[in-house]
Design goal:
about 180 residues; alpha+beta; five-stranded antiparallel beta sheet; about 20% helix; globular
């Protein structure tokens, strides 16, 4: 089971590397990595398990965040008012996106960042993605809202990009043209 001590923090070189494609058939260790990433996210959304294992809640976790240079991440989002999603994405990519942007009004956070960083992170409002599951089956999804933002956040990790790289350093809260603000509790 992945714990907070296993998640590398800001400044670790693994967070700034472009990660390697996962080859198929998937190895046992890569399969277990995917399962472990998703397990952490699911467990981190359970208040009892968070307290018992001292977990920080999250909705996504990428392989480089546990010092594994693989193009793989897990998302688990069950917010009210949206269709729940829960999947492991291997070799993910965005195949199309909206012109329209979005951002979370309260800003983004990251399990690898132990400080609050204020500012708007512009993201595509809607994306169509392709990825592979643990069995090597390709899947395609259309995502919007928080799911689209989380996918882009985790995909950035696979390319060595941190969310705060997108924040305007001179004016962190400047208006983002053609963007719909997203309120998140």
């Amino acid at each position: 089971m992945i714990l907070m001590k296993d998640i590398v923090r800001e400044g670790h070189p693994a967070l700034r590397k472009k990660n390697e494609l996962v080859s198929f058939p998937i190895s046992d260790s890569d399969r277990q990595l995917g399962i472990d990433l998703l397990e952490y996210i699911v467990n981190s959304q359970d208040d009892e398990l968070c307290e018992k294992f001292d977990l920080r809640p999250g909705i996504g976790l990428a392989a480089p965040q546990v010092n594994q240079q693989k193009r793989m991440f897990a998302l688990h989002i069950t917010d009210e008012g949206i269709d729940p999603i829960s999947f492991i994405a291997i070799n993910p990519k965005i195949v199309s996106h909206s012109v329209e942007k979005t951002y979370i009004t309260s800003g983004e956070g990251c399990l690898s960042v132990d400080r609050d960083i204020e500012g708007y992170v512009p993201r595509y409002a809607r994306i169509t993605i392709k990825a592979f599951d643990l069995e090597g089956n390709e899947f395609k999804k259309r995502l919007k809202g928080i799911a689209a933002i989380a996918f882009q956040h985790e995909l950035d990790h696979l390319n060595g990009v941190m969310f705060y790289d997108h924040i305007d350093a001179n004016n962190p809260f400047h208006d983002i043209p053609d963007a719909i603000p997203l309120e998140r509790a």
